[in-house]
Design brief:
single chain, mainly beta, Immunoglobulin-like, 5-stranded mixed β-sheet, 5 helices, about 40% strand, disordered N terminus
Length: about 300
């Protein structure tokens, strides 16, 4: 019997509730419509032995059930629908979870839903057959997320056009879910590089998300917005991308898509109007030059008073 003493066990979905506990809590059960709807999710090992789990580190690891006072489910946001239609950036590998292990993640629930208006709401998290406790929130009047429109492309004088041979082969399009956000919020920008040519294009696959693509962000007066400490640190520690030999073929109209939180890289702490354009410096193997995206206007508002 001693042979089995040090064996760990893998978490089987049907046993999740028996091996783990999931608790959610919030420091602010009363919020305004334009404030973060923050909930802390904590997973604890209650099995009395080491197990293996593959979640608990990302906000996309959980199913979130948000309902109004009448018990109706709150509609999902465009951000949530976009995640479901693509690849979910959640945990993907099993890791050991000791007998006294705890994992916590702070999640902004409002990012995944379009709150219809002020009122009382209940929220519960789940993962497989593991369910959390239920929290009650009171949402005070403010600017409803559902009333904010997607950012429209604009063409200010500062816009720069694509150049070089790549400008004729590719188009770069950017989108955001909302044209108006609150200071401190994430601003996920979705990028799509499309092959406009009639033939196939073969090239080394870029690390597209936030290093191959650059951006030009300016305030309402046309001044460049300064970088964040995170952006400067990333540049100072970034090494040239090694040629791994991995190549990809873009068929006609193929779209290479990515996502980046622009608020991580640019200091948007000051409310105001901003203009955003992305660009991609194409490698010589596809003609060189620079491909420029459309320009979006984004408004950053101050947080409402509690």
């Amino acid at each position: 019997m001693k042979v089995f003493r040090h064996l760990t066990m893998f978490l089987i979905p049907s046993l999740a509730a028996a091996q783990l506990s999931l608790n959610i809590a919030s420091d602010h059960p009363v919020i305004a419509m334009d404030e973060d709807f923050e909930v802390s999710a904590t997973v604890s090992n209650v099995a009395g032995r080491q197990i293996w789990i593959a979640f608990g580190d990302y906000d996309t690891d959980y199913e979130i059930d948000l309902r109004d006072a009448a018990g109706n489910k709150v509609p999902e946001s465009a951000y949530s629908r976009r995640l479901k239609s693509g690849i979910t950036l959640g945990s993907t590998r099993l890791v050991p979870f000791p007998s006294d292990g705890v994992r916590s993640e702070k999640i902004d629930v409002a990012k995944f839903f379009d709150l219809p208006g002020p009122g009382a709401y209940t929220v519960q998290f789940s993962r497989l057959d593991l369910h959390s406790n239920v929290l009650v929130f009171t949402v005070l009047p403010g600017i409803a997320h559902g009333d904010e429109r997607a950012a429209k492309s604009v063409a200010p004088i500062a816009a720069i056009a694509s150049s070089g041979a790549a400008g004729e082969k590719f188009s770069l399009r950017i989108e955001v879910d909302r044209s108006s956000v609150v200071t401190g919020k994430e601003i996920p920008v979705y990028t799509a590089l499309t092959n406009l040519s009639a033939g196939k294009i073969s090239m080394r696959a870029p690390d597209w998300i936030d290093s191959a693509a650059g951006f030009d962000l300016r305030d309402g007066d046309g001044n460049p917005v300064r970088e964040t400490d995170y952006s400067r640190l990333r540049k100072s520690t970034q090494t040239p991308t090694a040629d791994t030999g991995y190549r990809m073929t873009l068929t006609p109209n193929f779209r290479l898509q990515g996502q980046v939180d622009i608020a991580k890289y640019a200091d948007l702490s000051a409310p105001g109007t901003y203009f955003l354009q992305f660009y991609w410096k194409a490698p010589a193997e596809v003609g060189g030059g620079e491909v420029r995206s459309n320009v979006l206007q984004i408004t950053v508002r101050p947080k409402g008073l509690r």
